[in-house]
Amino acid sequence: MNESLSSMIVPGVLWALVLFSVMSWALLLIKSSQYLRQKSQNNQFSKAFWAAPDLLTAAEHASQYPGSLARIANSGFEAMIVDDTPRNTQQLAHTINRSDRLERNLRQQIQKERRSLESGQAILASIGSTAPFIGLFGTVWGIMEALQSIGVSGSASLETVAGPIGHALIATGVGIAVAVPAVLIYNFFLRRLKLASANMDDFAHDFDALAQRSAFAIDRQAISNKRTAVREAS
Protein backbone atom coordinates (compact mmCIF):
# COMPACT_ATOMS: atom_id res chain seq x y z
CA MET A 1 0.00 0.00 0.00
CA ASN A 2 1.13 3.53 -0.74
CA GLU A 3 3.00 4.93 2.27
CA SER A 4 1.14 8.26 2.26
CA LEU A 5 -2.20 6.47 2.11
CA SER A 6 -1.17 4.11 4.89
CA SER A 7 -0.24 7.01 7.14
CA MET A 8 -3.74 8.48 6.68
CA ILE A 9 -5.53 5.41 8.09
CA VAL A 10 -5.24 6.28 11.78
CA PRO A 11 -6.13 9.99 11.34
CA GLY A 12 -9.03 8.89 9.13
CA VAL A 13 -10.26 6.55 11.86
CA LEU A 14 -10.06 9.34 14.43
CA TRP A 15 -11.98 11.77 12.20
CA ALA A 16 -14.63 9.11 11.58
CA LEU A 17 -15.03 8.64 15.32
CA VAL A 18 -15.31 12.41 15.81
CA LEU A 19 -18.05 12.43 13.17
CA PHE A 20 -19.87 9.62 14.98
CA SER A 21 -19.63 11.57 18.23
CA VAL A 22 -21.08 14.69 16.61
CA MET A 23 -23.94 12.60 15.18
CA SER A 24 -24.72 11.12 18.60
CA TRP A 25 -24.90 14.47 20.35
CA ALA A 26 -26.86 16.00 17.46
CA LEU A 27 -29.40 13.18 17.74
CA LEU A 28 -29.60 13.79 21.48
CA LEU A 29 -30.63 17.40 20.84
CA ILE A 30 -32.98 16.59 17.95
CA LYS A 31 -34.74 13.71 19.69
CA SER A 32 -35.01 15.60 22.98
CA SER A 33 -36.68 18.46 21.15
CA GLN A 34 -39.01 16.00 19.41
CA TYR A 35 -40.12 14.34 22.64
CA LEU A 36 -40.52 17.62 24.54
CA ARG A 37 -42.58 19.12 21.71
CA GLN A 38 -44.75 16.02 21.49
CA LYS A 39 -45.30 15.94 25.24
CA SER A 40 -46.41 19.57 25.27
CA GLN A 41 -48.71 19.07 22.28
CA ASN A 42 -50.26 15.91 23.71
CA ASN A 43 -50.89 17.54 27.09
CA GLN A 44 -52.68 20.46 25.46
CA PHE A 45 -54.75 18.20 23.25
CA SER A 46 -55.66 15.80 26.08
CA LYS A 47 -56.99 18.65 28.20
CA ALA A 48 -59.11 19.98 25.34
CA PHE A 49 -60.25 16.53 24.19
CA TRP A 50 -61.46 15.22 27.54
CA ALA A 51 -63.03 18.57 28.41
CA ALA A 52 -65.12 18.48 25.22
CA PRO A 53 -68.90 18.26 25.90
CA ASP A 54 -69.54 15.85 23.00
CA LEU A 55 -67.86 13.80 20.29
CA LEU A 56 -68.41 16.49 17.66
CA THR A 57 -66.41 19.01 19.68
CA ALA A 58 -63.76 16.37 20.38
CA ALA A 59 -63.53 15.63 16.65
CA GLU A 60 -63.06 19.34 15.97
CA HIS A 61 -60.22 19.47 18.51
CA ALA A 62 -58.58 16.44 16.87
CA SER A 63 -58.51 18.24 13.52
CA GLN A 64 -57.10 21.46 14.99
CA TYR A 65 -54.42 20.31 17.44
CA PRO A 66 -50.98 18.97 16.50
CA GLY A 67 -49.33 16.02 18.22
CA SER A 68 -49.46 12.25 18.06
CA LEU A 69 -52.60 11.83 20.19
CA ALA A 70 -54.50 14.33 18.04
CA ARG A 71 -53.51 12.44 14.90
CA ILE A 72 -54.56 9.14 16.49
CA ALA A 73 -57.91 10.62 17.48
CA ASN A 74 -58.38 12.10 14.02
CA SER A 75 -57.74 8.71 12.40
CA GLY A 76 -60.27 7.19 14.78
CA PHE A 77 -62.93 9.76 13.91
CA GLU A 78 -62.29 9.13 10.22
CA ALA A 79 -63.22 5.49 10.79
CA MET A 80 -66.41 6.50 12.61
CA ILE A 81 -67.73 8.98 10.05
CA VAL A 82 -71.09 8.07 8.55
CA ASP A 83 -72.69 9.93 5.65
CA ASP A 84 -75.80 9.54 3.55
CA THR A 85 -74.11 9.09 0.18
CA PRO A 86 -74.99 5.84 -1.63
CA ARG A 87 -72.46 3.10 -1.20
CA ASN A 88 -71.67 0.09 -3.33
CA THR A 89 -71.89 -2.64 -0.72
CA GLN A 90 -69.99 -4.97 -3.03
CA GLN A 91 -66.79 -2.96 -2.52
CA LEU A 92 -64.40 -4.55 0.00
CA ALA A 93 -63.90 -1.22 1.79
CA HIS A 94 -67.58 -1.20 2.75
CA THR A 95 -67.73 -4.78 4.01
CA ILE A 96 -65.67 -3.96 7.12
CA ASN A 97 -67.73 -2.92 10.11
CA ARG A 98 -66.91 0.37 11.80
CA SER A 99 -65.58 -1.28 14.97
CA ASP A 100 -62.95 -3.20 13.01
CA ARG A 101 -62.18 -0.16 10.87
CA LEU A 102 -61.69 1.95 13.99
CA GLU A 103 -59.32 -0.59 15.54
CA ARG A 104 -57.34 -0.83 12.30
CA ASN A 105 -57.07 2.95 11.88
CA LEU A 106 -55.92 3.43 15.45
CA ARG A 107 -53.36 0.64 15.18
CA GLN A 108 -51.98 1.91 11.88
CA GLN A 109 -51.67 5.48 13.15
CA ILE A 110 -49.91 4.33 16.32
CA GLN A 111 -47.44 2.40 14.16
CA LYS A 112 -46.78 5.55 12.10
CA GLU A 113 -46.13 7.54 15.27
CA ARG A 114 -43.79 4.88 16.59
CA ARG A 115 -41.81 4.84 13.36
CA SER A 116 -41.43 8.60 13.62
CA LEU A 117 -40.15 8.31 17.19
CA GLU A 118 -37.80 5.46 16.25
CA SER A 119 -35.99 7.59 13.67
CA GLY A 120 -32.32 7.91 14.62
CA GLN A 121 -32.37 4.95 17.00
CA ALA A 122 -30.69 2.66 14.47
CA ILE A 123 -27.90 5.21 13.98
CA LEU A 124 -27.25 5.39 17.73
CA ALA A 125 -27.26 1.60 18.01
CA SER A 126 -24.83 1.29 15.10
CA ILE A 127 -22.45 3.88 16.56
CA GLY A 128 -22.55 2.26 19.98
CA SER A 129 -21.78 -1.18 18.60
CA THR A 130 -19.18 -0.31 15.95
CA ALA A 131 -17.20 2.63 17.39
CA PRO A 132 -15.01 0.49 19.73
CA PHE A 133 -14.09 -1.85 16.85
CA ILE A 134 -13.32 1.05 14.54
CA GLY A 135 -11.07 2.48 17.23
CA LEU A 136 -9.46 -0.93 17.71
CA PHE A 137 -8.82 -1.14 13.98
CA GLY A 138 -7.07 2.24 14.14
CA THR A 139 -4.98 1.02 17.07
CA VAL A 140 -3.93 -2.21 15.33
CA TRP A 141 -3.03 -0.31 12.18
CA GLY A 142 -1.09 2.27 14.19
CA ILE A 143 0.86 -0.45 16.00
CA MET A 144 1.69 -2.11 12.68
CA GLU A 145 3.04 1.20 11.37
CA ALA A 146 5.00 1.73 14.58
CA LEU A 147 6.59 -1.73 14.35
CA GLN A 148 7.49 -1.14 10.73
CA SER A 149 9.12 2.17 11.65
CA ILE A 150 11.04 0.47 14.44
CA GLY A 151 12.21 -2.22 12.01
CA VAL A 152 13.42 0.38 9.55
CA SER A 153 15.22 2.42 12.20
CA GLY A 154 16.71 -0.68 13.80
CA SER A 155 16.20 0.73 17.29
CA ALA A 156 13.90 -0.89 19.88
CA SER A 157 14.50 1.44 22.80
CA LEU A 158 11.64 2.49 25.06
CA GLU A 159 11.66 6.01 23.67
CA THR A 160 11.34 4.69 20.13
CA VAL A 161 8.55 2.20 20.91
CA ALA A 162 6.43 4.07 23.46
CA GLY A 163 5.65 7.14 21.35
CA PRO A 164 4.15 5.53 18.20
CA ILE A 165 2.35 2.76 20.09
CA GLY A 166 0.96 5.19 22.66
CA HIS A 167 -0.31 7.36 19.83
CA ALA A 168 -1.96 4.31 18.20
CA LEU A 169 -3.72 3.34 21.45
CA ILE A 170 -5.52 6.70 21.44
CA ALA A 171 -7.82 5.37 18.71
CA THR A 172 -9.17 2.64 21.00
CA GLY A 173 -9.78 5.14 23.79
CA VAL A 174 -11.58 7.50 21.43
CA GLY A 175 -13.69 4.62 20.10
CA ILE A 176 -14.82 3.72 23.61
CA ALA A 177 -15.42 7.38 24.47
CA VAL A 178 -17.68 7.67 21.42
CA ALA A 179 -19.53 4.39 21.99
CA VAL A 180 -20.47 4.88 25.65
CA PRO A 181 -22.49 8.11 25.19
CA ALA A 182 -24.15 6.64 22.07
CA VAL A 183 -25.30 3.58 24.03
CA LEU A 184 -26.54 5.72 26.94
CA ILE A 185 -28.42 8.04 24.58
CA TYR A 186 -29.91 5.03 22.78
CA ASN A 187 -31.13 3.48 26.04
CA PHE A 188 -32.53 6.81 27.21
CA PHE A 189 -34.63 7.27 24.08
CA LEU A 190 -35.61 3.60 24.05
CA ARG A 191 -37.16 4.21 27.46
CA ARG A 192 -38.88 7.36 26.20
CA LEU A 193 -40.19 5.41 23.19
CA LYS A 194 -41.71 2.74 25.44
CA LEU A 195 -43.41 5.39 27.60
CA ALA A 196 -44.74 7.24 24.55
CA SER A 197 -45.99 3.98 23.02
CA ALA A 198 -47.76 3.06 26.25
CA ASN A 199 -49.37 6.51 26.35
CA MET A 200 -50.62 6.14 22.77
CA ASP A 201 -51.93 2.64 23.46
CA ASP A 202 -53.79 3.86 26.55
CA PHE A 203 -55.35 6.73 24.61
CA ALA A 204 -56.40 4.40 21.79
CA HIS A 205 -58.02 2.06 24.32
CA ASP A 206 -59.91 4.95 25.94
CA PHE A 207 -60.93 6.27 22.51
CA ASP A 208 -62.29 2.86 21.54
CA ALA A 209 -64.34 2.72 24.75
CA LEU A 210 -65.63 6.23 24.06
CA ALA A 211 -66.57 5.30 20.49
CA GLN A 212 -68.73 2.42 21.74
CA ARG A 213 -71.11 4.94 23.29
CA SER A 214 -71.95 6.31 19.84
CA ALA A 215 -72.10 2.87 18.21
CA PHE A 216 -68.82 3.65 16.43
CA ALA A 217 -70.56 6.24 14.26
CA ILE A 218 -70.45 10.00 13.88
CA ASP A 219 -72.30 12.05 11.27
CA ARG A 220 -70.22 13.79 8.58
CA GLN A 221 -72.72 16.61 8.15
CA ALA A 222 -72.78 17.23 11.90
CA ILE A 223 -68.98 17.63 11.89
CA SER A 224 -69.21 20.05 8.95
CA ASN A 225 -71.87 22.10 10.75
CA LYS A 226 -69.79 22.12 13.92
CA ARG A 227 -66.72 23.41 12.08
CA THR A 228 -68.80 26.09 10.39
CA ALA A 229 -70.14 27.21 13.75
CA VAL A 230 -66.63 27.34 15.21
CA ARG A 231 -65.37 29.47 12.31
CA GLU A 232 -68.30 31.86 12.61
CA ALA A 233 -67.78 32.19 16.35
CA SER A 234 -64.12 33.02 15.89
From TrEMBL:
What are the TM regions of this chain, as residue ranges? 12-30, 122-144, 164-190
For this entry, list what GO says about its biological process: protein import
Cellular-component GO terms for this entry:
plasma membrane
**Limits of the MotA/TolQ/ExbB proton channel domain:** 94-200
Q: Does the keyword Endoplasmic reticulum apply?
A: no
Q: Where in the cell is it found?
A: Cell membrane; Membrane
User: By its UniProt entry, which PANTHER family does this protein fall under?
Assistant: PROTEIN TOLQ, TOL-PAL SYSTEM PROTEIN TOLQ
Q: Into which family does the record put it? A: Belongs to the exbB/tolQ family.
Could you tell me what this protein is called? Answer: MotA/TolQ/ExbB proton channel family protein
Species, as recorded = Pseudomonas saxonica
